[in-house]
Amino acid sequence: MSGVDWVKGIFRTKSFRTKFILVVGAGVILDLLLSGSVALWNVHRLGDDASVEIKRGLEKASKEYLENYIATTGLRANLVLSRVFSETTSLANSMQTLIDQPDTQAKIAGAVVDSPYFTQPLVYDEKGKWAQNAPGATSVLSVWGYLLGPDKQPLPQVREEIQKTAVFDLMSNSLMSTGARKLQLYYMGPKDRPIMRTTPYSDQAQTFDKLYPGHNDKNFWDFFFPGVYEGWQEWIKNPKIKHHGTLITSTAPYTDAITGNMIVTFFHPLWNKERTDCAGAVAVDITLEQLADLVDTVRVAETGFGFLASSDGNVLAVPPQGERTLGIKMENDSTTAGVTNMVRKLNKSLYRDVTALKLPTGVETTIERVQLKSGAARTPYLMVLRRLPEMNLWADNKIGSDHLVLGFVVPERELYASLYAAESKMEAATTRIRNWQIAILVFSLALVLSIVVGISKRITSGLIALAGAARRLEKKDYSVRVNIPPGDEVGELGRAFNNMAAEIQDYTGNLEKIVEHRTHSLERANREIQALNEKLKGENLRMHAELDVARRIQNMVLPKPLELSSVARLDIAGHMEAASEVGGDYYDVLQSDSRIKIGIGDVTGHGLESGVLMLMVQSAARALLESGPMDSCTFMQVLNNAIYKNVARTETSNNLTLSFVDYSENKITLTGQHEEMIVVRKDGSVERVETLDLGFPIGLEADISQFINSRSIQFDSDDIVILYTDGVTEAESPQGKLFGVESLCESANRHRGGTAQEIKQNIIRDVLNHIDTQKIHDDITLVVIKHL
How far apart are CA 534 and CA 342, in angstroms? Predict the structure, then answer.
């Protein structure tokens, strides 16, 4: 054999030698792969553990840094607002002191009015219908048209208000030049004379006309700030209303009618001397730029930024790049009355994570992870949020509680830049190790395959000889034998093969006799099976005939229509449908002289035994009624004694629930334990009478006298009694839903206007419609009794 032919022989697809080489090679490869994988896994695990530790440390340090930074920034925000609040409160306290000391107020105001530096005459504007002091004064004074008389001069009480509040110009000028940066200070009179003084001087009324047309046709407070004045009056009436320890009330950002800037106003109400009503207010305006200064100085990582929002997510201050990062923009809020509020809501962001953001309601700093757009890609960001102290806010035409929320937004990649760099280096090292591992694997595979090919011929020669002998044996050459040297497992296999070939050669000589013997055995067994089938067929015919007789007997003893129609003053209809050939339900209408007894029961199980027990009950009940009068409890006890002894004789475990209804002059007496009895009154009301405490299962115990009881119920004209077995209420729809007692009551009530026969037919039709295509699992028995 040439070398080429030898190689072709080795790698034949079905060659054992090929399979041997493949199995051994695969084992080596698997071992190498496992060892290499373990090494790579350890390298990856080392890298992952290092990453986890680095990240844990960075997260802890970053969290502490962010929490401390936002807490410090929150303190700065509180400080800015506190300064504004403090100066507003100082101005309000000064004005309130003068209100409480009217004599002093008059003297100081008189001095101020006499000074031309503070006071300029009022000039009436024909177009705007208002009056305003001429330029040159330190503060602008606007008097709206509805506060002027026919002579275009202020009304007397308005003139008095102007005189008393002139001192505002003196105090407001000094406050504007000191303390926190303010856009303007102003005073607004009470509801009935809301003059307006504003420092510094501006074309106040003219700007109002341009920005808020129609403002001069309505009271100042109702037009610009509806509800705020009434909120302060409510504070006076009810001191228990919470206003966070300060009277200052802030607004949401809106466009200032005087300067056109975006501003936030902080009001402080003034009270009359008696503290029974509001006497106007002083206010301070600051621009959103002043709030923006708080967040513009925030420097978190490289591109992180801060923002300031109200509790409803309206962003008051945010840098321009932060506005783009959060996907929000400034809009006019035209849904509320008063000044034009400006909104920049987080819940209207372009990004789902921002719209779904929950702002903190507690005092703890929260950190959320959100996905925001950075360039063309979505990037994970950390959002740090901290709630600032509560304040009074005018919104939606009322004064309520609100708080500001300070937020930091920083890209996650910038916080963890060192972690990502370490992970990149570890990934490069892992790649180098993996490449070396693959090179070792390829070299080892080539070496192992060359060794396996070299020794495969010696190892597999015996197996090849066995394969050739097996093919000859397959062609029925039973004389074949193999010559394999003994000493190993292959030699033992050769010896076993030779013995097997000898046995097959011997067995084939006797095969025909064995086949003939087996054929005779099969024919005999077939004849025995046929005889058994004939016997079973006869037994089935006999049992069917017996069941048919029992069913016919059972139907024979049921009450006939003539019997039912002969019962005086009662219209009775009955229905019984067995689930099998012989049912286990019982119903009967017994009449002896003037005594009427109607029974219904349900025997456990189905079939012949249950049917026989039902017949026993029918016969015994008939005999007892004919034996003479006895009370219903004694009747039930005697009946149970007879049934119990018969059941004991038949050695069965069957028993039944059983109730009897005795009728006499507009009254029925119910005795025995069974399903509930349903009474439908002529007015449509439905009563359900429970029977659990009226008896005990019949045939289960010898003495049930202590359990038997009776219950009498009024039964008047057109009243209806429904008796039934559980086959009615447990009738099952194709979806597995039971018909139920409620459906039975509803059906009986719906059809109560008909005769007993019509009511019975309609109820049975409703039950069968409920069952539809479902198999009937239990006997269905129904008795309808209508008082005529």
Answer: 98
**In the block, residue with structure tokens 């048209």:** 145
Q: What residue type is assigned to position 378 of the chain? A: R
- Does 1 have pLDDT greater than 50? no
For tokens 């280096």, name the residue. Answer: 425
With residue 114 as reference, give the H or E element that holds it.
none
Most confident listed range (355-369, 425-439, 662-676): 662-676
Amino acid identity, residue 722?
A: I
For residue 488, give the H/E element and its range.
Answer: none
What are the beta bridge partners of residue 211?
none
- Sign of the alpha-carbon dihedral angle for 440, 441, 446, 447: positive
**The two structure tokens encoding residue 524:** 């005999």
Mean pLDDT in residue range 489-510:
71
713 Rama sector, left if φ>0, alpha if ψ -120 to 50, beta otherwise? beta
Report DSSP letters for 526-559, one per residue.
HHHHHHHHHHHHHHHHHHHHHHHHHHHHHHHTSP
Structural tokens at position 409: 């937004």
Residue 737 confidence (pLDDT): 94
**DSSP-assigned beta bridge partners for residue 780:** 577
Q: How confident is the model at residue 408 (pLDDT cuts 50, 70, 90)?
A: confident
Q: Which residue has the tokens 């501003």?
A: 263
Question: What's the token pair of residue 521?
Answer: 């055995």
Q: Could you say which DSSP state residue 212 is in?
A: S
List CB contacts of 567: < 8 A, sequence separation 6 or more: 589, 591, 596
Cis before residue 200, ω within 30 degrees of 0? yes
Give the Cβ contact number of residue 203 at 10 Å. 14
Rounded Cα distance, 774 and 755, in Å: 29
pLDDT the model gives residue 523: 77
385 DSSP 8-state letter: E
CA distance 109 to 98: 10
Angle at 441 between CA 439 and CA 446, to 5 degrees: 100
CB 373 within 8 A of CB 353: no
- When pLDDT is cut at 50, 70 and 90, the band that residue 662 belongs to is very high
Task: At 643, give phi and psi (nearest 5°).
Answer: -65, -40
Cα distance between residue 380 and residue 371, in whole Å: 5
> What counts of helices (H) and strands (E) characterise the chain?
21, 26
| DSSP at 738 | B
600: CB partners within 8 A, 6+ apart: 585, 586, 587, 658, 659, 674, 723, 724, 725, 781, 783
Enter the DSSP assignment of 336: S
What is the CB neighbour count within 10 angstroms for residue 60?
A: 10
Residue percentage of the chain with pLDDT more than 70: 83
Provide the 3-class DSSP secondary structure of residue 476.
coil
Q: Kindly report the CA angle at 163 between 159 and 166, in degrees rounded to 5? A: 135
User: In terms of residues, how long is the chain?
Assistant: 788
Q: Identify the pLDDT of residue 43.
A: 62
Measured on CA atoms in the order 460, 462, 466, 472, is the torsion positive or negative? Answer: positive
Residues 214-232: b if buried by 16+ CB within 10 A, e if exposed: ebbeebbbbbbbbbbbebb
With 0-12 CB in 10 A as exposed, 13-18 as middle and 19+ as buried, what is 695? buried
Give the highest mean pLDDT range of 55-59, 444-448, 777-781: 777-781
Determine how β-strand 377-395 pairs with β-strand 249-251: parallel
- Can you tell me the distance from the alpha carbon of 750 to that of 1, in angstroms, rounded to the nearest whole number? 102
Rg (CA), the chain: 52
Query: Residue 696: which residues within 8 A CB-CB, separation 6 or more?
Result: 640, 673, 704, 707, 708
Q: Per-residue pLDDT tens for 721-753?
A: 999 999 999 999 999 999 999 999 999 999 999
Q: Are 131 and 148 in contact (CB under 8 A)?
A: yes
CA distance 380 to 410: 9
- The DSSP call for residue 179 is S
